[in-house]
Amino acid sequence: MIVIDTETSTAPFEQIRLQLRQQILAGELIAGTRLPTVRRLAADLGVATNTVARAYKELEVAGFVVARGRAGTMVAANGDAVRRQAHAAALTFALSMKTLDIAWDDAISLAAAAYANA
Questions:
Q1: Can you give the residue ranges of every domain in the chain?
Q2: CATH class for domain 12-76?
């Protein structure tokens, strides 16, 4: 489910893009899942069709979805690959922290700081 926050400075297309991306990465939307049509999602969210179209296009460029014309827009298999890569990176990080005997809380702090500065 996508929710548009009208109180934030984040553009609606970006909110849609970020929420769909997060749902794909979290495994809530799996490869092959058909997304709502641009018109349908725009109507459901109360935004312009161009807003949804832009979010879908940016997700397509990033490899998260595939547009199949009249067949609709679907979650790409690449989304699963991105999740696998993220998991592998997290595992490498966790193993490194354990090898260095870094406490869990300290490891999370280090990761948060690195992520913020990346």
A1: 12-76, 80-117
A2: mainly alpha
Output the pLDDT for position 79: 60
Identify whether the C-beta of residue 103 lies closer than 8 Å to the C-beta of residue 88: no
Residue 6 to residue 98: CA distance in whole angstroms: 43
- Which three-class secondary structure state does DSSP give residue 56? helix
pLDDT in tens, 60-92: 998 899 998 888 999 998 666 676 777 778 889
Residue 103 contacts by C-beta under 8 Å, 6 or more apart in sequence?
Answer: none
For residue 46, what is the DSSP state?
T
Give residue 59's pLDDT band: very low, low, confident or very high (50, 70, 90): very high
- Containing 25, the helix (H) or strand (E) segment is helix 12-25
Is the pTM higher than 0.70? no
* Amino acid found at 85: Q
**Burial classification of residue 65, based on how many CB atoms lie within 10 Å of its CB (0-12 exposed, 13-18 middle, 19 or more buried):** buried
DSSP annotation of 89: H
